[in-house]
Amino acid sequence: MMLKVLAGRLARRPWRFLLPAVLLFFFVYSLSRRRPHHAGVQQPVHKAKTKSFFPPLETKSANSIELDYCQNFPKHLLDEIQVVLKVSSGEGSATKAHLSTVSSCISNLMIVGDQDERLGDRHVIDILAELPKSYEINNLDFQAYVDQKKAHTEGETVRESQRSFKLDRFKYLPMVDRAYTSNPKAKWFVFLESDVYFFWDTLFRLLSQLDSSSAHYLGAPHKGSEGRYFAYGGAGFVLSQGLMKRLVPPRATGSVEIPRESRLSYRYEDWVKEEQRGDAVLAYAIQNATGVQLSALHPTFSSDQLKDVMTTRDRWCVPLLSLHQLKPEQMENLWKWERTRQYNTVSTFSYQTRYPIAWLTRC
């Protein structure tokens, strides 16, 4: 009798039964899907219970300007981590916003740009001034730096054609050289840009699970020439001490002196003149000098804009480390939110490598 009633209802209004069935099918199908993996390659998984290194503030205030957002920052970790901020002279508002938010807690911050200047109590290193004079030969894009420097010296206005976006690719190799030669004892070297937001707690949890004496090149993968991948500069990237020792070798074993001929900016000058992307040239130099490939930690290292952040199955439980192209107001608002939000004190933080991509999970 019951079956006849159900059959009658189905005949009169089939959509009432078919629609839920279709939705259930797609829900189960989506959950059953698996990420593709490279055949024949074992997938190592490293899991650890990690506590927050830089938790939000416990005390909230209606007037958040009065809060010290850095009061519980783990300053001791900076003994092992060298942070480098790459800036451009034409992005003053973005740089100032970054220095007052994301990088405000970084006491050993190294700032590199295309002009020597002071921003408050911070010094911007003209990293292009450390390149050999040969960069000016048959190099129209680099001529913009020569003209810009001359204009600043003579008090003239820098023309639009001379703006520093043309010079960005020339900063990557010398900034890596400078970071290592200035602080060779650092275990990790972290590079980011003035419009990149970094969640420091995610970075510290990640690095706490990795061996800095091994060669690590971490970042968001972008495909370059000849099928090679490089860490996109707009998502930030990390190099380990183990990699640096092989990449920029000292004059002698056990020495910390780095001769000029060992520096990347000297060895790969021709490459950076020909290639339009400095972050790609850095990856090619790393592969050429050490054979180390990018560990593509995506979407933890992310080049997404704030408005494009979404939660999908592949991103569920994946901790976010970076965001790109944040405007100064967005950076300030996100920093205030991050430092005063609610959080879980302990969570599972996993590092899983798959070819050619790696995932981080945190639940």
Could you please describe the fold and organization of this structure?
With 363 residues, the protein is α/β, with parallel strands linked by helices. Helices cover 31% and strands 18% of the residues. The protein has eleven helices and 15 strands. The chain has an eleven-stranded mixed β-sheet, sandwiched between helices. It has a two-stranded antiparallel ribbon with strand order 7-13. α3 runs parallel beside α11. The longest helix has 18 residues. It starts with a helix and ends with a strand. The relative contact order is 0.15. About 8% of the residues have low confidence.
Concise account of the structure shown:
Helices cover 31% and strands 18% of the residues.
Topology:
Blueprint: H1 2-12, H2 15-32, E1 45-51, E2 81-86, H3 92-99, E3 110-113, E4 117-119, E5 122-126, H4 140-153, H5 172-182, E6 188-193, E7 197-198, H6 200-207, E8 217-219, E9 221-223, E10 229-231, E11 237-240, H7 241-247, H8 264-267, H9 269-274, H10 278-290, E12 295-297, E13 322-323, H11 328-340, E14 346-353, E15 357-362
Parallel strand pairs: 2-3, 2-6, 3-5, 8-12, 12-15
Antiparallel strand pairs: 1-14, 4-5, 6-11, 7-13, 8-11, 9-10, 14-15
Helix pairs in contact: 3-11
